[in-house]
Task: structure prediction
Amino acid sequence: MALNSYLDDQDSAIRSTDFDALSCRLSTHLKGYIFDPYIELLIPNLINYKTLSVESQFKSLAVRRNLKKQFFGLFDITGKLDSTNATTAQRSITNTYQQGTLQRGQHPTLSRPQVLKSPVINRGTWLRTYSIDLIVKQFIDQSEIDEPIQIISLGSGNDTRAFNLLPQYPNLTYIELDFEETCKIKRCAILNPSTKLYEPLSIDHTSEDTLPQNHEQFRQIPAELHSSRYHLIPVDLRDLSFKEQITPYMDFTRKTLVLSECCICYLSTDKSNELLAFFKQILEKGVFLIYEPIGGSDDSMQNESVYAGNGNGSFDHPGGSSNISNQSRASSSYGEIMLRNLSTRSIDMPSLLSYGTIASQKQRLIEIGLDANHIGVSDLKFVYFNWVQQEILEKVTKLEFLDEIEELNLINLHYCLIVASWGFKLQSKFTPYQI
Amino acid sequence: MLNLDKIIDDVKNCKLIPENDIQELCFLAQELLIQESNIQLIDTPVTICGDIHGQLHDLLRLFRIAHDPPETRYLFLGDFVDRGFYSLETFLLLLCYKIRYPDRIFLIRGNHESRQITSVYGFYDECLRKYGSANVWRYCCDVFDYLALGAFIQSSSGNDDGVFCVHGGLSPAIETIDEIRLIDRKQEVPHDGSMCDLLWSDPEENIPAWAVSPRGAGYLFGYSETERFLFRNKLSLIARAHQLVMEGYKEVFDGGLVTVWSAPNYCYRCGNVAAVLTLDDSLNREYTVFESMLQDCNEIPTKKPVADYFL
Result:
């Protein structure tokens, strides 16, 4: 029992990282780096239903308060939960933020821009979203218009990618896997008639779907949600018997992109490798798209010269080849401090030092059975200076003043983007870092 | 009347200093700083410190390692505030020392000593959180406007070439140190021009002369521009801060320029070490490298429990 509650705490600490990511994404959206029409609709719902998921009344008040704070106090929600709440919240943010009429990045309710995340976090969050979207788009673009394809998002949490992609690409099926509680909350958010988030997922909303009004009701509701092309499935990724849960909704012969955006890094390395091997085995044609932190190592094999630009779409950038700071490779002290900082929130990240370099990440996939020629691993500093078109970079640079170039490079150096395919070759115009 | 020694003690212990005392301190500091020239002349020996960024406990560690003023003569190259959780205490401690020992500690302005930057990077928020109003922030910003722009260090014999100290670097609009003396510095840091460049520019090894800075202010300057500036002004070294260096300090351009960074484990996240540079009477360089200390200061709640990551 004691062990169980310890594990529950661990899981809820990991679940809490969902809200970190979402809060970063909201900040990046409000600053004009990305445009995500669904994020402002999703957040008030999440705050409401997350609060309902908590049994203790006082704890739920604290949870609500913390979430409001995490979303910069922009979502004005009263203690009561009713269907108008979400729209009120939505109005409070959109009234003053009319798309197109206001210059992005100059949110009127944000006369003091510092209420949002710091520029270095905004820039890094944008890069994360931008680079993952690049590869996702490439994956989709390489399919025929009538060729059915799938995306499985591991630990999809509060991601809005499905809302954005499904209406655009009729040949796409999107499957989201996450903890049961996270799925329940997302399911409620999607089904809320006032925000109509079910529409982009082509879910026929029936009024029979009653939304919970209190914790008791929340406990009773299902966590799964299905439409012809969207599936939200509660699973424990550490227990591979979830195959039975996903089999009815997936076609293992279709081209499938398996996305892990800061997900498998929270699993033990054994479990994450088993999970990757599992997908490699059940899917005929697949591609792993993995974004996660790398803690660095003292014997890193990385070589500085590539930052001068190589491959297609690359260019020279003055900040990219700076020799002033010796930050050409990931150093393990960054990873050790990251582990220490995360441990104050009870978050463990087993892969951070075990697979602390792009070389060891690549080796890990080779050992799972992928072809070394079909594995590309790049750190995000490389991605920043080699994958982003100059004009986009210039646009982004103008959004807000970023003083911390060295820090941005240092942080980016400690995140990697892995693109690894089997059964077919994902043609990429983006050259990965050459190891 | 201010009891400086008590305030110094209280600041070191992160106790809240009364708003009136801070106002008084800031007025005193302005009276002192207004008399200083844009380029301060400093005698040797002197210990040069780079960015501190509100990491009070690491600053206290620095003082323990390199000795408290007035025992050691200090030059701080700016960026006292922002990013760390104790910007106010850091700045107040330095101001108190400055008022107490005006000839033993020198402060020059960094690009973060500005209203615009501090309202984005944390100092404004910190003052608001600790005092419930922006008054304290405003008093401090008024002091920022009076900080000198650079320093010139001469060996006590006067025979050796001197050392030019500045927060950022060179400006294409400035050829001699004397030209800096002509700037009207008592203002918010402008968005461009020579004053802005001094606080914002960075050296870059792979460019011939000047290049656009990715920071959006100041310039990148190369080997040849540095050589020319050293020669023209009879200098042996440019000492500057402004850029995080993992090793605490880094010499470039055949030892003609050094970056000194004094905020260990910057932003509680970067894992770097810090350094200070001590110049002896013959301007010999000695670097002292130090690591961060894990601090716990309970009197004032910190802004966030941990540094931000992409999770």
